[in-house]
Amino acid sequence: IVDVKGGPDEGMDRLGQALAIRGWVRTCRVQSSVTFIEVNDGSCLSNLQCVMNIDAEGYDQVESGAVTTGASVLVEGIVVSSQGSKQKVELKVARLVTIGKSDPTTYPIQKKRATREFLRSIAHLRPRTNTFGAVTRVRNALAYATHKFFQENGFVWISSPIITASDCEGAGEQFCVTTLIPNTREGTDSLVNTIPTSKDGKIDWSQDFFGRPAFLTVSGQLNAETYASALCDVYTFGPTFRAENSNTSRHLAEFWMIEPELAFADLNDDMACATAYLQYVVKYILENCKEDMDFFNTWIEKGIINRLNDVVEKDFVQLTYSDAVELLLGAKRKFEFPVKWGLDLQSEHERYITEIAFAGRPVIISDYPKEIKAFYMRQNDDGKTVAAMDLLVPRVGELIGGSQREERLEYLGSRLEELNLNKDSYWWYLDLRRFGSVPHAGFGLGFERLVQFATGIENIRDAIPFPRTPGSADF
Ligand code: 4AD
Ligand code: MG
Q1: 3-class DSSP state of 425
Q2: What ipTM is given for this predicted complex?
Q3: What does the UniProt keyword field contain (predicted)?
Q4: For the chain, which domains are there?
């Protein structure tokens, strides 16, 4: 398998070597004496230019029109220096085998650039485009760097459950899990719920699979807290689900979240961890995904490399929610949504803060009013705010949400009561405050928003292989 990564001299060290590539034809240009076949195997952005003379083995397949865009091929040959200006080396073909043909009249990926919307409708083929190949490799590098960062810093990776009974964020945005049996004759068009209902039509959950309502998790945090209360620093990295009916460029119904939880730590430790983590993974892709990052810099978001260099090199801005409200009230611009202490910041406000007020730098806002934040956040001494923090970045808005957790049993108990949450169902969570409670803090980072931020890709639907959004769960 060839890996001639981009850059001026790449591939030169293979000059004279015999080489085989298996991949997909991007283009095939037949000229009178010579044929140029661009092959890509997904290992890097660059295609390998394969130059084939009419006497090479398998030339009959070129003649018969089998070597078309989208076809899969095996090409063997010798690496030689290239006359072309686009690449230093090319493959002088000795043998070509067409493995899987691709009808050029119906292959959906044509040379002219397709819209992102169209490519979403062919999510099974879009990884064959330059953009999605690059996004996928950078997404992979970000995942690798995430584990590397936490492992190097002594964190233990925890698998939090996907099916859960609790609603971590208390926002009622959960998908319910239940068992269904398809009607064997009509297949999935006729699903039959196995939960018996009583005469008045109410579901009898005690008869269902889990014997109670169960949901897809919105966050692994509460489970991570239990392990942080034993192993100290831990993190989760897994899929989370939200039945938010928001059709925006930043929301998915299924997204991956990274949730570190630090024991014997406060909000300052949490903010320091979030900063160090973000700088580490951004630096990692700048150093290890140069060819793909150059591609984004040219084709997706001009200047993204400079912007990311600043993230690595400069301090993040830090201000309190109260300061942020003052700043917004003093802004010359008119906002659509009102700005008032006690109201949540809308994305137009977040974007103003990071894009205009602080010229593109990441901004951490802390100490939000307790009414607009989740039940588990630690109350500050003022009685009005909680030790929460959100990290905002340009274009994406909220990338990270975190907090110091309420470790005091009596405060947590009365907060649950104030919010009318069922205390009994949090018995195990409250136990952590009964037995060896410690100050602890953590955050959640939406992985697809990180991919958006790091690649410049505009829509979150293009930051994950198979996006799930309201009305769309294809593929
Ligand atoms: O701010 P959120 O709701 O915080 C939590 O879930 C905490 N339990 C995290 C923690 O402290 N361990 O979500 C965290 C992050 C957001 O900042 C955002 O990046 C992402 O998850 N996120 C989404 N990403 C894509 N689609 C959605 N619908 C998202 N909802 C949240
Ligand atoms: Mg949040």
Answers
A1: helix
A2: 0.99
A3: Aminoacyl-tRNA synthetase, ATP-binding, Ligase, Nucleotide-binding, Protein biosynthesis
A4: 12-100 (2.40.50.140), 132-174+218-462 (3.30.930.10)
